[in-house]
Amino acid sequence: MLDSARLTHLLPNKMRSQVDSYFEALSVFTQIRDPRVLRSLGPSGIRGMLLHRGRQNEPTKIPCNYMAHFDWNYPADQPAMAELYRRAKQGQWDSDEMPWDTNVDPFNHEIPLLPDNFLDPQSLADELGTKFTNKELAELRFSVVCWLLSQFLHGEQGALFAACQVTEAVQFFDGKMYGATQVMDEGRHVEVFNRYLDQKLGRLYRINDNLFVIIDSLMTDSRWDMKFLGMQIMVEGLALGAFGVIYKVTQEPLLRAILERVIQDEARHVHYGVLALREHITTQLTERERQEREDWAFEVAILMRNRFMIYEVYEEWFEGLMTREHWRRFITNAPGMKMFRQVMFSRLVPNLRAIGLLSDRIIPYYEQVGLMQYFNGVAADNLSSEQMLRELDGAVAL
């Protein structure tokens, strides 16, 4: 029997790329050890990675099934969440106050959206045996930043809908009050990213398949704590790191101002997830249930890592000129994408540790994929947005 590498080598370039994408998707799900996790992610994987439902240029209808939790006593049951609610009310901001009159020229080399060495274009040119013109390099960087911000926008729409569900389903009344502020936050984030892409860049990419799988899985899961884990810890935690990278490296003032405000909101969202899940996971779940969530979190971390391979830009620019394997190697080693992984997972892994989903049982799997280097970072409940922004402002950019 032919292995996948041998099979793809025998095919024409475009078909080879398609087959590689199917094998890559298949490899993610065939390596899932827990059958409960496979049952949870499998249907979403088919809809996202094989049927490409997010790329079909039409609205996606996702069936939802979960219990709304009413409490007619309105208890003050979580003081830490009540304090977070107070801070969230004070932290509301008006998107119209952003400096939207800023002239954004994505090809202005004096005020770059991304630095020249974000992608290491010389290694890409060497791979292709060619040389890029300055115009081509500027257009490639433009494609990449539009792709990144498009995925931010799609993720924020997922966060908006998941925040609505979580507010209904969460069992803490103080958590419901805080959740209402997050719904407003996420709606504002959708607005500002969409407005920036539409009015300033004029370009929107479809949702990445891996991100679609995660959002589809969260929306269809009936368990409130899985919605919390997926959105507040995984998606929001990784997004917080991703926003921080662009905030640190961009010199475009409007984008930087937007990201500064969004980072302050997102820091509260992840803090909320840690507060809601820590006691629940460590005291309310059976060991079997905890292990399922631990395995699920690991698989979603892998999906989120693969989300940033930017295949849509590859398909637009280089399909037929280089293989997906070569593109993966290039993107994995690009300086900006290395920074993405470092900052994103330094935000995620400590939060998994804080809520009890990094036991000795799962740690070897994180070590195998190089994520345990982030184990000793600071969890969201001990890291304020102000501290986070000070660290970003003080860090050395690319």
Automatic annotation (TrEMBL):
Which Gene3D superfamilies does the entry mention?
A: Ribonucleotide Reductase, subunit A (1.10.620.20)
Task: Give an example GO molecular function.
Answer: oxidoreductase activity
Annotated protein name in UniProt = Uncharacterized protein
